[in-house]
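stage 2 :: seqdesign
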């Protein structure tokens, strides 16, 4: 048994290769893996049972607490990796040259990943978007469900999760319906026939908007006369809401259904494009009829 333990100890401490002045052994690699796993587990426990409780007692917004929690977790992991390498006995100064060479090579091949990583830090620090925000970017519209260092998860109204790279939120134009003040205004275009009672139309639209439970009383709804169109008088109903920001399509649809029903009820016509043709009378056109079978000239 003693011989077996002695051989096992020699095998575990036998140097596999050398990094600078540090010898890497099986025992060292095993200890490194175990310590890294402990670091990851400790980071989750630290965020869940310590950091969340401390931040929960502050007056910070939920999105701010989430950003602080994520950044603190990443810093905890970096410090844990540094301490783990020191405990195992790996000389970090000897890795500087190797890390520099590897960094140059990875910089070209992983520049998109690095760009998304930096963008994720900017998002968590500046908070242009936050959890629960309704955003539109790159043709994707939905609610922000998760923000990580590489990507952001956006859930659409169809309950489809779309993974958006963080760099798109930094390099492209982002529409954030919930940023700052969650209250937004919807503008519904309406065209009525020429000759319609415009005052009656205004009163009808304002009353209809006030009946909708999702329309805010302050600021109140408004009706604007936009223009004299080719086939209609064009108006615009403006309403404010914050309950239906996450379902703008359904909110517009409900208003359009209600407007169509109400205008039919009060007898206001919604026209379709049409043209009036005016034929001007003039002098009659004289047409000279030729013989059906003209005879050839005689010699």
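stage 2 :: out
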């Amino acid at each position: 048994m003693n011989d077996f333990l002695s051989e096992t100890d020699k095998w575990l401490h036998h140097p596999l290769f050398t990094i600078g002045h540090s010898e890497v052994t099986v025992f060292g690699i095993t200890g490194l893996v175990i310590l890294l796993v402990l670091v990851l587990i400790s980071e989750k426990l630290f965020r869940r049972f310590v950091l969340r409780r401390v931040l929960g007692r502050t007056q910070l917004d939920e999105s701010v607490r989430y950003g602080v929690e994520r950044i603190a977790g990443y810093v905890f992991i970096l410090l844990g990796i540094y301490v783990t390498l020191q405990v195992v006995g790996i000389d970090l100064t000897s890795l500087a040259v190797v890390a520099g060479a590897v960094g140059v090579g990875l910089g070209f091949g992983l520049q998109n990943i690095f760009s998304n990583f930096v963008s994720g830090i900017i998002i968590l620090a500046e908070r242009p978007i936050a959890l629960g925000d309704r955003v539109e970017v790159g043709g994707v519209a939905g609610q922000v469900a998760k923000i990580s260092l590489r990507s952001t998860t956006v859930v659409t109204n169809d309950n489809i999760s779309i993974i958006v790279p963080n760099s798109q939120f930094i390099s492209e134009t982002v529409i954030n319906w919930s940023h700052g003040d969650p209250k937004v205004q919807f503008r519904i275009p309406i065209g009525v026939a020429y000759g319609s009672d415009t005052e009656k139309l205004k009163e009808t639209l304002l009353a209809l908007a006030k009946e909708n439970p999702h329309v805010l009383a302050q600021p109140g709804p408004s009706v604007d006369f936009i223009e004299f169109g080719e086939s209609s008088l064009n108006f615009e109903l403006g309403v404010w809401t914050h309950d239906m920001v996450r379902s703008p399509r359904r909110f517009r649809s409900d208003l359009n259904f209600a407007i169509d029903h109400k205008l039919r009820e009060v007898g206001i016509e919604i026209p379709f494009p049409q043209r009036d043709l005016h034929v001007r009378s003039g002098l009659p056109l004289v047409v000279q009829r030729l013989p059906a079978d003209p005879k050839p000239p005689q010699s």
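stage 3 :: structure notes
- The two ends are 142 Å apart (CA to CA).
- The chain has three domains: 11-109, 129-176, 184-266.
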